[in-house]
Amino acid sequence: MSAVEKRSVTIRGHRTSYSLEKPFYDDLVAIAGTRKLTLAALVAEIDETRPRDTNLSSALRLHVLEWAKRATSA
Question: What are 41-56's pLDDT values in tens digits?
Answer without folding.
Answer: 999 999 999 998 999 9
